């Protein structure tokens, strides 16, 4: 990667105090790492290995959602991107969420999935990333599943 502020992207970045990946925006970067801006105004410089594109995140992270923005996170699946909607594993409740209510985990960082271990980036992961970027950038599309 080259230096500078080009190629700003929405990503999931590793927050070492609790071991989760949270949504963030990339900032200045060079070959050794990138500055990330978390939604709560925290700013950190991270190694590239601690920053996942949306496509990578969809392929390797287990997601948790902050149920009703009460600070209690529960495992969930993303079932729709526009609007971002999740289904919680525990009780099957479906909720529309903001990206700032999401966080991801890779087995507590004890073992990170490599692309080979996870079977590569799946077609679902690519579609999730493409759809989410369209949603984030305000592109409207028709959902064929409805």
How is the secondary structure organized here?
Blueprint: E1 10-15, E2 20-30, E3 33-38, E4 43-46, E5 51-53, H1 54-60, E6 62-66, E7 73-80, E8 85-88, E9 94-96, E10 102-105, H2 123-136
Antiparallel strand pairs: 1-2, 1-5, 2-3, 3-4, 6-7, 6-10, 7-8, 8-9
Helix pairs in contact: 1-2
| Mean pLDDT level | 77
Shape: globular
Tell me the structural class.
mainly beta
CA radius of gyration: 15 Å
| Beta strands, count | 10
Outline the biggest β-sheet. 5 strands, antiparallel
Q: What is the straight-line distance between the termini?
A: 40 Å
Number of H/I helices: 2
Structure description:
The chain is mainly β and about 150 residues long. It has one domain (about 10-135). About 15% of the residues lie in helices and about 35% in strands. It is built from two helices and ten strands. The chain has helices at about 55-60, 125-135, and strands spanning about 10-15, 20-30, 35-40, 45, 50-55, 60-65, 75-80, 85-90, 95, 100-105. The strands form two sheets. It has a five-stranded antiparallel sheet with strand order 4-3-2-1-5. A five-stranded antiparallel sheet has the order 9-8-7-6-10, with helices on one face. Helix 1 (about 55-60) crosses helix 2 (about 125-135). It is globular and about 45 Å long. Residues about 1-5, about 110-120 and about 140-145 have low confidence and may be disordered.
């Amino acid at each position: 990667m080259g230096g500078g502020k080009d190629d700003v992207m929405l990503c999931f970045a590793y927050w070492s105090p609790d071991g989760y990946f949270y949504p963030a925006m990339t900032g200045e970067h060079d070959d050794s790492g990138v500055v990330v801006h978390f939604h709560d105004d925290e700013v950190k410089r991270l190694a590239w290995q601690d920053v996942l594109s949306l496509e990578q995140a969809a392929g390797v992270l287990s997601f948790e959602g902050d149920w009703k923005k009460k600070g209690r996170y529960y495992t969930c699946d993303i079932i729709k991107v526009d609007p971002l909607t999740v289904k919680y594993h525990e009780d099957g409740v479906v909720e529309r969420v903001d990206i700032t209510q999401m966080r991801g985990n890779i087995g507590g960082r004890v073992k990170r999935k490599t692309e080979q271990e996870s079977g590569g980036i799946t077609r679902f992961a690519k579609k999730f990333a493409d759809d989410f970027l369209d949603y984030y950038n305000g592109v409207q599309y028709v959902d064929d599943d409805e």
